[in-house]
């Protein structure tokens, strides 16, 4: 099975925008389609509470004609058109679609951050993990989220294999970002967030990229838009992951980034895994 995950940073902008960035985003969508994955996960869709409109669905169906589409959007009491996730999966697949609440603090359970697809012998979980926020204003809530999400994955793992994918908003190790020395108090690289990810892995999960590629450096999934040369200089972070249950790590065939050209922000990530029972 081939799966692709991408934090798209506004589905509406990518599908209907007129800017240079929107054009680059559409090219990435076509690149994803060319890879012909069985499942695609999109994070930070920023859709309204009623989901994509008719025009957006038409465009998606044009790019991905053989896929079913499901989504989870931010609803009250959370902010409108905020966060959000979406799955596209081949029509030949017939998963059960679950929109779990994990007991997260504040409005996090209402921000459309998780969708789970249940297949016959495994779960596929997509997540858009909350950012710790400017000045780390949401770090305390983020720490609770990390515990609750780990509890959720561990519970699923007791029933079936688990693949967890998405934007985890943390660079786990110093080799997962270009400048660790100057970012220890930055959201996404605090000791607390890194410890939260370590504890998640200890629950029985494998970071598939590190499993296949070891301690390779300089491979990232996100480059800041604020710094115009961040991608040219490869001043990036690896904050997007595919995790799998430890007991199926040996079935992973590929775990890598997909080239998104000059577009900064997130690049898609790809997992290929043999899930034949």
Structure overview:
The chain is an alpha+beta fold and 277 residues long. It has a single domain, classed as Deoxyribonuclease I, Chain A, CATH 3.60.10. The protein is built from six helices and 15 strands. The chain has helices at residues 11-16, 20-35, 54-63, 139-157, 191-202, 208-213; strands spanning 2-7, 39-43, 67-72, 85-90, 96-98, 114-118, 122-128, 161-167, 205-207, 222-223, 236-237, 240-245, 252-257, 265-266, 269-273. The strands form three sheets. The protein has a six-stranded mixed beta sheet. A hairpin with a 3-residue loop joins strand 6 (114-118) and strand 7. It is globular, with a radius of gyration of 17 Å. The mean pLDDT is 97.
Which features would summarize this protein structure in a list?
alpha+beta; 6-stranded mixed β-sheet; globular; 277 residues; Deoxyribonuclease I, Chain A; single chain
Quick gist of this model?
The protein is α+β, with helices and mostly antiparallel strands. It is 25% helix and 26% strand.
Strand and helix map with partners:
Elements: E1 2-7, H1 11-16, H2 20-35, E2 39-43, H3 54-63, E3 67-72, E4 85-90, E5 96-98, E6 114-118, E7 122-128, H4 139-157, E8 161-167, H5 191-202, E9 205-207, H6 208-213, E10 222-223, E11 236-237, E12 240-245, E13 252-257, E14 265-266, E15 269-273
Parallel strand pairs: 1-2, 7-8
Antiparallel strand pairs: 1-15, 2-4, 3-4, 5-6, 6-7, 8-12, 9-12, 10-11, 10-14, 13-15
Helix pairs in contact: 4-5
């Amino acid at each position: 099975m081939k799966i692709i995950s991408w934090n798209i940073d506004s589905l509406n902008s990518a599908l209907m925008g007129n800017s240079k960035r929107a054009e680059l985003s559409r090219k990435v969508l076509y690149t994803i389609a060319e890879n012909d994955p069985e499942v695609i996960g999109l994070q930070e869709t920023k859709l309204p509470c009623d989901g994509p409109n008719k025009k957006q669905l038409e465009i998606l169906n044009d790019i991905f004609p053989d896929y079913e589409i499901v989504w989870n959007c931010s609803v009250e009491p959370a902010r409108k058109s905020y966060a959000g996730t979406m799955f596209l999966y081949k029509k030949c697949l017939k998963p059960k679609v679950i929109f779990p609440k994990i007991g997260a603090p504040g409005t996090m359970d209402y921000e459309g951050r998780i969708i789970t697809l249940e297949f016959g012998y495994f779960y596929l979980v997509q997540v858009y993990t909350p950012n710790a926020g400017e000045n780390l204003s949401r770090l305390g809530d983020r720490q609770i989220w990390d515990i609750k999400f780990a509890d959720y994955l561990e519970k699923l793992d007791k029933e079936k294999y688990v693949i967890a994918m998405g934007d985890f908003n943390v660079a786990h190790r110093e080799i997962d970002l270009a400048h660790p020395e100057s970012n220890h108090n930055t959201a996404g690289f605090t000791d607390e967030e890194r410890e939260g990810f370590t504890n998640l892995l200890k629950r029985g999960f494998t970071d598939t990229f590190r499993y296949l590629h070891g301690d390779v450096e300089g491979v990232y999934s996100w480059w800041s838009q604020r710094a115009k040369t961040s991608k040219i200089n490869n001043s990036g972070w690896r904050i997007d992951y595919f995790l799998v249950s430890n007991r199926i790590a040996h079935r992973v065939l590929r775990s890598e980034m997909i080239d998104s050209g000059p577009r900064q922000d997130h690049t898609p990530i790809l997992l290929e895994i043999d899930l034949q029972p």
